[in-house]
TrEMBL record:
A Pfam family recorded for this sequence: Glyoxalase_6
InterPro entries, per database record: Glyas_Bleomycin-R_OHBP_Dase, Glyoxalase_6, VOC_core
Gene3D superfamilies: 2,3-Dihydroxybiphenyl 1,2-Dioxygenase, domain 1
Organism: Micromonospora deserti
PROSITE patterns named in the record: VOC
Residue ranges occupied by any VOC domain in the UniProt entry: 13-137
Protein's UniProt name: Glyoxalase
Length: 158
């Protein structure tokens, strides 16, 4: 059976990234209020334990080898800066979202720039020690797939 078999039941229903932050209120204000991720649920417990679950829309897991990670840093920032994990959010307007998040306390690492994969990306330092990329797709997936260097990797299940 191939991985793109329409009859295959997905093994994973949701990707949830859990981030520990020292300033919980500031992080919630940044991600929920400034970035605009809707609150899905919130829980509290003993010892002032708190968590909020924010809906980030469709989730993907991007696997990159070291050469690709270096290339993304070079394209987006002009130098190697990203840790092993970076969170990327697709937005409708990278320029205005970047301005809004910088006003809300993010550190601009790199202003929006057009990438070879035809998106407008900015890089920010965010609460929780995260580096985030805001990206705006400038072409459809079909248009990008027609460009050199684009495609998919497909495997098969044993």
């Amino acid at each position: 059976m191939t991985v793109d078999d329409p009859d295959r039941t997905p093994a994973v229903r949701q990707l949830r990234l859990v981030v520990e932050v020292e300033d919980y209120e500031a992080a919630v204000a940044f991600f929920r209020d400034a970035l605009g991720l809707p609150e899905q649920a919130a829980f509290s417990g003993d010892g002032d334990a708190r968590v909020v679950i924010l809906d980030a829309g469709r989730a993907t897991l991007e696997i990159a080898n070291p050469a690709q990670k270096r290339m993304i840093d070079e394209v987006e920032v002009g130098r190697q800066v990203a840790p092993k994990i970076r969170v990327a959010f697709e937005v409708d307007d990278s320029q205005s979202a970047t301005r809004r998040l910088v006003a809300a306390g993010a550190t601009e690492i790199a202003a929006p720039t057009v990438t070879p994969w035809q998106s407008l990306n900015s890089r920010l330092g965010a609460p929780g020690g995260l580096q985030i990329t805001l990206f705006q797709e400038l072409r459809s997936l079909d248009e990008r797939a027609a460009l050199g260097g684009f495609g998919t990797e497909r495997g098969t299940e044993d």
